[in-house]
Structure formats: C-alpha cells, structure tokens
Write a structure and sequence with these properties.
- The strands form 3 sheets. The chain has a 7-stranded mixed β-sheet with strand order 6-7-8-3-9-10-12, sandwiched between helices. Strands 2-1-4-5 form a 4-stranded antiparallel β-sheet, covered by helices on one side. It has a two-stranded parallel sheet with strand order 11-13.
- It is globular, with a radius of gyration of 24 Å.
- The longest helix has 21 residues.
- Helix 6 crosses helix 7 and helix 7 packs parallel to helix 8.
- It has one domain: P-loop containing nucleotide triphosphate hydrolases (Rossmann fold, 3-Layer(aba) Sandwich).
- The N and C termini lie far apart (54 Å).
- By secondary structure, the protein is an alpha/beta fold.
- A hairpin with a 2-residue loop joins strand 4 and strand 5.
- 38% of the residues lie in helices and 23% in strands.
C-alpha cells in the first residue's frame, strides 16, 4: 500500500510541475517581438528656451499601430516632425531596424522608409491621382517627356491594391471624396516603399463611411507589416485602430499602454491630469500611478 501511495504522489507532482512552467513570466512575449521597426530614444527639442519635447522615448514594431495622444501643445506633433525630418532634434537617438540613423531633413526620412501623411494630405488639387503619386518624382520617356502611360498604369496597380473600387483616375483630386483623397495620399507613401507611416489625424473631417474606409486601409497596411504612428484626438479611432497608445503632456511621455489594457476614462486621465493607470507603463511625465 505504501508503494502505491508513493507512486500516486509522484504522479501528482509530475502533473503539477508543467502547470507552474506554463504560467512562466510574460517577459518572453516581449523578447519574441524582436527589434523595433523604429525607436526614438531620449528625444528633446526646445524653441526659445521652452522644451517642446523633453526626453521622450517611443518605439514601433512591424505591423503595429501606435496611437499618439495628448492635448494641443503636448509635444506629440513636434516629436513626430523630428522623425519625419521637419525638425532637427537637439538631443536623442533614432534607430531603424536597430541601427542608429541621422535624420536632419525629410529626404533623410524618406531614404529610411519613413513617410508622413499630414492632415492636409499635401495633395495637388489640380492634378489627378497619378500626378499626385509621382509629384516631384515623375517618370519620363526616352525623349525626356512625361511618361503618363507608365505613371497611370503604376497608379492603377497600387490603387487597386488599396481600394479596388477606385475608378476616378482621370479627375483632379479636388473632385474626390475625403476617403478617396486619403487613398491617394496613402498610395503615394507605400508606392515608394514606405515601411513606417506617420498619419496625422487621418479621419478628421471625414464622415462615418469614409472613416470606416480609412480604417480598412490602415488594417490592410498592418497586415503587410507596415508600422504606423497614428496622431489623433479621437479616442474612438485610437481604440478601434491602435494596438498600443502613447500619451504625452507638457513635452513628456506620461505613459504607454496596450489599448486592451486601459479604458477610455483612464486614457482621459492620462491626457488631462498625467495620471498613469495600472495597465500602463509610466513615463517621465507621469504624475503618479493610479491607486
């Protein structure tokens, strides 16, 4: 009887041991993510002695959308303009695929696969989709004239990939809807091999249907491994589209969180009061951890 009891006890121990290993630390999840697509470390910039961005650090992984939130003047747009080359940082480092890079102008950003889609979209209203896609990078024939056929053919291919229902290739973009104009701006970015997209208020002033269309475009880009920084004042957009969010206040990062780990009210607390909830990782700008 003693032997049988010992045998049963041993079996019980063997069954319990794997259960303990299964609840192993979550650190392995972070390791599995690998190297960030882009990482900004300890970035600062000042204008007239006032720090617009104060030792801010953010990162982005392939196929991820990171929402950047904060009031006007929080520093989010300035931080992103440093990444896009519009501003030159005072201190800090920028890495792409783990390698430190120098960005002093928009050309440097584009050379590293970073494209920006501003709220204004920066489209030439008087030309068509192909004209906007190749604006400043026009294709030419052997005779030196514009190769309109090649540019339109390439535009049709990339637009079909993004928006199969798009048909208005011959019309100036001024006649397109807001969602269609966003499609053209996104097509221009990804056609030239952008791997990192900065989208500034992409759904501002769009109706529900067009907002949904832009949302589908973003999901498609994610599926292709493109990383997206999404600047937005709309919490619903961020919770619908972003995997993670970063909140800034007074030029500093309040905190970073996965959208699934925080509520709308908690994020509002981060934006307004700088309070960092339990589901978020506090940054230098956090007032205190929520109780």
């Amino acid at each position: 009887m003693a032997k049988r009891t010992a045998k049963k006890t041993a079996l019980k121990v063997v069954k319990k041991t794997p259960a303990k290993k299964a609840s192993a630390p979550k650190a392995s999840v972070a390791v599995a993510r690998g190297t960030p697509l882009v990482e900004m470390k300890d970035i600062s910039i000042a204008f007239g002695g006032i720090k617009a961005v104060d030792h801010a650090s953010i990162d982005l992984y392939p196929g991820e959308v990171v929402g950047l939130l904060g009031h006007n003047g929080a520093g989010k747009s300035t931080l992103i303009k440093i990444l896009s080359g519009a501003y030159k940082r005072d201190v800090g480092q920028i890495f792409v695929d783990g390698k430190e890079i120098s960005i002093t102008n928009p050309r440097d950003a584009k050379a590293n696969g970073i494209e920006t889609i501003y709220q204004t979209l920066a489209l030439a209203d008087n030309v068509d989709a192909a004209g906007n896609l190749y604006l400043g990078r026009e294709l030419k024939t052997r005779l030196g004239t514009l190769d309109d056929v090649a540019m339109e053919d390439a535009t049709r291919k990339v637009m079909f990939k993004l928006n199969p229902n798009f048909r208005r290739f011959k019309e100036p973009v001024s006649k397109l809807s807001g969602g269609q104009r966003q499609s053209v701006a996104i097509a221009r970015a990804i056609h030239f091999n952008a791997r990192i997209l900065i989208m500034d208020e992409p759904t501002a002033a769009l109706g529900p249907q067009e907002t949904a269309q832009v949302g589908e475009l973003i999901k498609q880009l994610k599926a292709e491994g493109i990383g997206i920084f999404l600047i937005s004042h709309d919490l619903h957009d961020v919770f619908d589209l972003a995997d993670r969010l970063v909140v800034m206040k007074n030029g500093k990062v309040v905190g970073t969180a996965y959208t699934k780990d925080v509520t709308h009210d908690e994020v509002l607390g981060m934006i307004i009061a700088g309070k960092c909830p339990k589901g978020a990782i506090p940054g230098p700008g956090a007032l205190r951890d929520a109780a």
